[in-house]
Amino acid sequence: MYSEKIAMLINGRWCQGSEGKSQPLLNPATEEIMADVPHASASDLDEALSSSAQGFAVWRQITPLERQAIMEKAARLVEERIDEIAKTLTMEMGKPLAEAKIELGFVIDVIRWYAEEGKRAYGRIVPARVPGARQMVMKEPVGPSCAFVAWNFPGTNMIRKVAGALGAGCSMLIKPSEETPGTAVAIARCFQDAGLPPGVLNIVFGIPEEVSEHVLGSWIPRKMSFTGSIPVGKHLQKLAADTMKRCTMELGGHSPVIVFDDADIEKAINVTSGFKFRNAGQVCISPTRFFVHEKVYNEFIEGFTERAKSIKVGNGLEDGVQMGPLIDSRRLPVMEDFVSNAIDCGAEIKTGGERIGNQGFFYAPTVLSRVPDEAAIMTEEPFGPLAPMTHFNSFDEVVERANALPFGLASYVFTSDGEKATKIEQALDTGLVGVNHPMVATPETPFGGVNESGYGSEGGIEGLDAFLRTKFVTEVGV
């Protein structure tokens, strides 16, 4: 049973919308309505913005060591409550419970990373040209911040924004997805119980366009961070431009997987099949375009297809389930259209290609062979359990095809040739490259794309710097 009480957090108080508006929260595995998600009114948003300004004035004055202590306590509380929060995450998003716990482990690591790294927001002294002068470069928090995040990783997407802001000394006003609100609420309760001052973290829900226009139209937030689709990201960037807010944009991708004939094929099959169907393929860095060398193409696709056929699909709370449902019924016809178009273009279904059952939004793990580059699935991000495969013959050919799209988030390469690996790492036009493994996202490393996949980084020292601004001070005779 879904146990999280959904509410907004404004000025340290949990509340419902002042106008009584809400929307139902649906379990994508059962289609059961589990709760109501409150919507913020304009006055609620104004209160949250004002609270964020007040919270920033308090939080920036707290020493990094004291901020670290509060954040560490929040991390410990997430650890203590991980079973309960994981169940909430699975019920609202659909991913298997084991995946939910892995995601929350990442949440804990991110909190601790930023808590510690916030103590290292170093400046520097620059030798002066004027005798007796002192020139200082200082780092200071950019100010109250705001964020809007997608539903596919309810914990990860939220905490990258929140922990980055708090570690730098900023306050955060965030709108999690209305489709997965409970995870964010549960994590925020951990921060509240850890002693976070009122107003430092505010959470609101509502009609996305109405909330974003109101929040981004205010001069209070000085920084905006977004995780979501490219069209929405472009829209939010335009809104943020009117008040010159700094932005970090983590947008969609269409990740190529390049398997050379000198690769360890068994390893490549095992790694990519597991990673492809993680979270039912609803991952911005999911492998989505498979380019396999002609010499090993048949071996790879047959092995990959067998792995796909063996995946147990079902309710993420059930034992042994390896893949859950899509987030909503709207995603099912999208999968069907991609598959239908690929077949019309000459592709062949090796397995899957259909909805599973008639309750819940389940779609079978799908492998498509010999998919031409002109098929829609090779140019548009599928965001689902679809693996389109094609073959290539030469290095230059596959690089050109992999770089043919305007996206540039992640890419993956499998080869045993070190020189070839170095050459293709430099040639691929993406912000993240994984060679012989897919682990391109950790708390201590930068995460972000290029081109239409966005700009800026979350994670690593770059993720902290995103919430800091630079001030130069020069003084003489003091």
CATH homologous superfamily designation of the largest domain: Aldehyde Dehydrogenase, Chain A, domain 1
Give the helix level as a range of percent.
Answer: 25-40%
Distance between the termini: 65 Å
Based on CA inertia axes, which overall geometry fits?
globular
CATH architecture of the largest domain: 3-Layer(aba) Sandwich
In terms of topology, how is this protein built?
Blueprint: E1 8-10, E2 13-15, E3 22-26, E4 33-38, H1 42-59, H2 64-80, H3 82-93, H4 97-117, E5 124-126, E6 133-141, E7 145-149, H5 156-168, E8 172-175, H6 181-193, E9 201-203, H7 208-216, E10 223-227, H8 230-241, E11 246-250, E12 255-259, H9 265-276, E13 287-293, H10 297-309, H11 331-344, E14 348-351, E15 355-356, E16 362-363, E17 366-369, E18 386-392, H12 395-402, E19 410-414, H13 418-427, E20 432-435, E21 454-455, H14 460-465, E22 468-476
Helix pairs in contact: 2-4, 2-5, 2-6, 3-4, 3-6, 4-5, 9-10
Structure notes:
With 478 residues, the chain is α/β, with parallel strands linked by helices. The protein has helices spanning 42-59, 64-80, 82-93, 97-117, 156-168, 181-193, 208-216, 230-241, 265-276, 297-309, 331-344, 395-402, 418-427, 460-465, and strands at residues 8-10, 13-15, 22-26, 33-38, 124-126, 133-141, 145-149, 172-175, 201-203, 223-227, 246-250, 255-259, 287-293, 348-351, 355-356, 362-363, 366-369, 386-392, 410-414, 432-435, 454-455, 468-476. The protein folds into 2 domains: 8-251 and 452-476, Aldehyde Dehydrogenase, Chain A, domain 1 (3-Layer(aba) Sandwich); 255-442, 3-Layer(aba) Sandwich (Aldehyde Dehydrogenase, Chain A, domain 2), CATH 3.40.309.10. A hairpin with a 5-residue loop joins strand 15 and strand 16. Helix 3 runs antiparallel to helix 6.
